[in-house]
């Protein structure tokens, strides 16, 4: 594995106002062992088929869902597939996997490590949250017969730690605000670090546009873009009236990535309560999106994702934290799937501009990073053996 970053040399800066993941660690997960991947505002994983690009993004998404409070069984419906192939069971026939990340923000770098048992039954068997060399939360499975782990969190009061049980099917870090009172400086430090971790993980939108689903007219509804971008026409109908400035940028992006002239991107309601999307060619001709190629549809959908925000995307950000202090992270597996070299380059350049502003981050997987790795600001993680 090789890692390169074409961003400008980093200068000594103050701590970032917006929490963001700076490293993904896969100590033992699927094809990865003892792997550490740096994450920048715009990160692209590349490598041949089977090198682990999808696995890395799957681990990131799993951490995000756990940070949002999802149950372990929902996040890992097939946990055995996450266990490294050559991992041998211990004397109790247990096998599992370990994942973690680092999030930088106002509290400085905060590290999270999670150990999951996949067999014989799915459960979290260990978790550690640390910052500044101090262990703020640590959990361990003491009694396999109980559906709980023993937790100890930093107090720095009359007692250095507080102990108590936590469920073994939820991320303890996400539960700390419900268990820690915040009476001491130590407890307040625990809460601040946990909040920083959870805010960064919760604001994640995993996106994989499906051209087949995007071709049909869609019913008018909440106007939040689904993971597969099935309701693209509905979201175009909503966003056109909400933010003309960003919509103009979308039209410019579509013009650069779609074949033929494009003067506008439209959405029109039909008589049956649905809405369909069209490209205005500027000469009285309007092309229904259903007639576009797969690459053009994926390009349009991904450009829309990059130019919108949590209020438009199907994501659940931390409502208790002001939007100005959050950064949306887009996970895009197969970012260049179906795109030609020109479209991939235009999309990455758009992503670089949007990520530079700080309100969005992108972690994507591409089959061939050659046409995009020379873009300034891109961190390329090459998984080629």
The outline comes out as: elongated
Widest beta sheet: strand line-up: 3-2-5-6-7-8-9-10
Strand content: 25-35%
Over all CA atoms, what is the radius of gyration? 22 Å
Sheet having the most strands: 8 strands, antiparallel
Helical coverage, percent range? 25-40%
Q: What is the end-to-end distance?
A: 6 Å
Structural class: alpha+beta
Low-confidence stretches: 6-12
Q: What is the arithmetic mean of pLDDT?
A: 89
Number of strands: 18
Order of helices and strands: EEEEHHEEEEEEHHEHEHHEEEHEHEE
Total number of helical segments?
A: 9
Identify the notable features of this structure and list them briefly.
385 residues, alpha+beta, 8-stranded antiparallel β-sheet, 18 strands, 27% helix
